[in-house]
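Backbone-to-sequence.
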């Protein structure tokens, strides 16, 4: 039984019903999704502490995702490619 946690950059607190942010590092929140056996098992929304930083967002975002044990960040452009296929 394998669990994968993915992070989606989102614009608010609506979880899977929220809008995907156009810029991952600038997103207001990250929607964290645990997927187990190809099914969504748990969804949690966390604030992005780097959202309002003018510079240096990358390392803060990476540390935030590591703190939440995220295996796969989903960027808006990669999500759009998945939806198109």
């Amino acid at each position: 039984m394998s669990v994968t946690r993915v992070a989606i950059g989102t614009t608010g607190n609506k979880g899977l019903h929220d809008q995907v942010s156009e810029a991952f590092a600038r997103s207001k929140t990250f929607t964290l999704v645990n997927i187990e056996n190809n099914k969504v098992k748990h969804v949690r929304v966390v604030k992005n502490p780097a959202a309002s930083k003018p510079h240096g967002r990358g390392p803060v975002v990476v540390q935030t995702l590591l703190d939440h044990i995220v295996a796969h960040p989903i960027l808006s452009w990669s999500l759009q490619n998945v939806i198109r296929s």
